[in-house]
Design brief:
The structure is a homodimer of 367-residue chains.
Chain A lengths: L1 E2 L2 H14 L8 H12 L4 E4 L9 E9 L1 H4 L5 H16 L5 E2 L7 H13 L3 E2 L1 E2 L12 H4 L7 E4 L5 E6 L3 H14 L3 E10 H7 L1 E2 L1 H18 L3 H9 L8 E17 L2 E10 L6 E7 L1 E7 L2 E5 L3 E6 L16 E7 L8 H7 L20
Parallel strand pairs in A: 2-5, 3-4
Antiparallel strand pairs in A: 1-2, 3-9, 6-10, 7-8, 7-9, 11-12, 11-17, 12-13, 13-14, 14-15, 16-17
Chain lengths: 367, 367
């Protein structure tokens, strides 16, 4: 599929906010970068993993840093080009395609902007099926690939390479402290993989799903009185392993937030539109981790929590939430691969220090 | 000069403790590594910078980390070999010689052990003329070379490269946080330079001076009733720009120390052997920074403060100082190049947050 017009980019960015589950960095910056490419006549091809040769060289390109800082950075194009160059020099061969490390947030769009700029296809897949705060939280890593060599660079040209580590968690720890030293926001090329790796380990079809969501919201505003009705027809298709429901309809009465160890940590408290005794809370570590309604867990990582304007169904990022805002909260099932025990170990509740067990969002009591 | 016997190594290590001015990491580990090489018949050539071709490729090899942790690490040989390999791969050519980044502490001996292992000469020069806590505190850096690319590795094989930064201070900051993440102690190859750079920017003759000091102490114990008398004949030669004096003769009554941000931070308090009202203090940041006698500054960085056993004149590292210990404290003039204004800016008192002006140790009131 060729991404060749500005509306597709807006749709992608809208979908990426929803799949960013509160975090992942605001895709708006990526939208501007990609729209600039398209205006200048450089389009980008989104290809299915099945189109890759098994021995193709595929790499990820991603921003790393606190999303509250991320929104202030714009000169990503040159940095990403240099990161691709460094990866190619190290690997001793040309990169054949780019794969987003995460479909949620800024890192879904950055690869498209770079792909358009350098003429490389982007794969219709990713490693997170949403956004996560850590580099090691990918199906790539769970199934044996490593983030290294990971090339890091900022706009000043400061350049660091994490060449090899014993675990991707250590790569994450190093990338985090290096990012802090280099100004809280950097870009990276990482996860060099083969075409075969992508076909067997990635979350397939996630980029076109992102586009489908963004376009679906836009069209639902025209075709339905309540756009959520149209949106849920896309998100909730049990026959296709898609499950979604509205978890809450309310307004924000409190937000506590801080940037801690380079992470955006927050708690969002809401009450029902019609019933102030109906209390809803979301815990945030860059992304939404867990939602409780009247003290009961109704959605938990890696399942997705999304905050949307209750009238327009426009997805809203976590750092934009503010007192008094009226939202509908969606809960979405993660991709089946992400609910496997080996995956839950790396990005399930316990990986974030939560004591709750994972429960499937479709199994909660909310109708 | 060929370093081919165990006594030379002990002499070098003894001199390196004195020139380490309290820090630099205990050379004892380096002594063991180098003695092992020599026992196995691998000697190392110490060559003068003048013997280098102008276009020779010279690199430094150094341990980075808190010296209190440093003493617990032993498997440096393989790590240093890998670091040399990585530098050569990156530069696309063989390294011709190794230069110690600092003549004080462990990092004076590590390059010799590696040189013996791989058959490379080590240059009779360094970049600090003593030990300093930061990577950017070298004459190399002051006069325009950069520490990058800096290759970092630990015994587990975790490998990070600081490829390029806008300042060596930033390289230091990155190396420091990476070191903390990789286990508080790593080795590195850094400061790739030309032979011409070394001839014009290094502190020349410092390694043979280190050997001269270590041997001088050993011989002075035999030839003098008071070994300090013999030692001062080496250290205090005004005609050769060497100045030294005994700053204090006393015992330790208090030591305050902590490891903070990967640095060994301490205050050593002493009183006179015969006069408890005669008070002497040393401030430490890995190395001794400033010595005061009864509140008056008598020696300050980059001039060298050395703590020696008051009977045997054996130099003692800062982390080994303890309550009740009887010491003579020496003050030594830094190499003239290091007292230039552009050098004082990088490793003079203000670079360590001290408000005192630099004063030459030979100009204090102590006779």
């Amino acid at each position: 599929m060729l991404i060749d017009n500005l509306e597709m980019v807006k749709d992608l960015a809208r979908g990426a906010v929803l799949l960013g589950t509160g975090g992942g960095g605001d895709p708006y910056i990526g939208q501007l970068l990609l729209q600039q490419q398209i205006r200048e006549g450089r389009f980008v091809e989104l290809i299915d993993a099945s189109e890759l040769a098994d021995d193709a060289l595929v790499v990820s390109i991603a921003g790393v840093g606190a999303p509250t800082v991320l929104v202030e950075h714009l000169q990503a194009n040159d940095v990403c080009q240099r990161l691709l160059d460094r990866m190619e020099r190290y690997m001793g061969r040309k990169v054949d395609a780019i794969i987003p490390v995460e479909v949620g947030g800024l890192n879904s769009i950055i690869p498209l902007a770079l792909g358009a700029q350098v003429g490389l296809p982007v794969i219709n897949a990713d490693g997170m099926g949403r956004a996560f705060p850590h580099i090691e939280m990918t199906t790539f890593s769970v199934y044996g690939n490593t983030a290294c060599p990971m090339f890091i660079e900022n706009e000043l040209g400061d350049a660091v390479t994490i060449e090899k580590t014993t675990t991707d968690r250590k790569t994450e720890d190093i990338a985090r402290v290096v990012t802090g030293t280099l100004g809280a926001m950097v870009y990276s090329s990482l996860y060099p993989m083969s075409g075969h790796d992508v076909k067997t380990k990635a979350i397939l079809g996630s980029m076109s799903y992102c586009l489908e969501i963004g376009r679906g919201i836009r069209e639902a505003r025209i075709n339905y009185d309540d756009p959520f009705e149209g949106l849920l027809k896309i998100l909730d298709q049990p026959e296709n392993d898609r499950h979604a429901k509205i978890l809450f309809d309310g307004k924000i009465i409190d937000t506590k937030r801080e940037t801690r160890d380079g992470l955006h940590v927050a708690t969002i408290k809401m009450i029902g539109i019609d019933d102030p005794s109906d209390v809803f809370e979301i815990e945030v570590q860059n992304e939404y981790l867990v939602a409780t309604r009247n003290g009961e867990t109704v959605c938990i990582v890696p399942d997705l929590i999304a905050t949307l304007d209750r009238e327009s169904a426009e997805p809203v990022t976590g750092e934009k939430l503010k007192y008094g805002q009226r939202l509908k909260i969606l809960g979405l099932a993660a991709s089946p691969i992400m609910r496997r025990p080996e995956c839950l170990e790396v990005f399930g509740p316990s990986a974030f220090g939560l004591s709750e067990e994972f429960i499937c969002v479709e199994d909660n009591k909310i109708k």
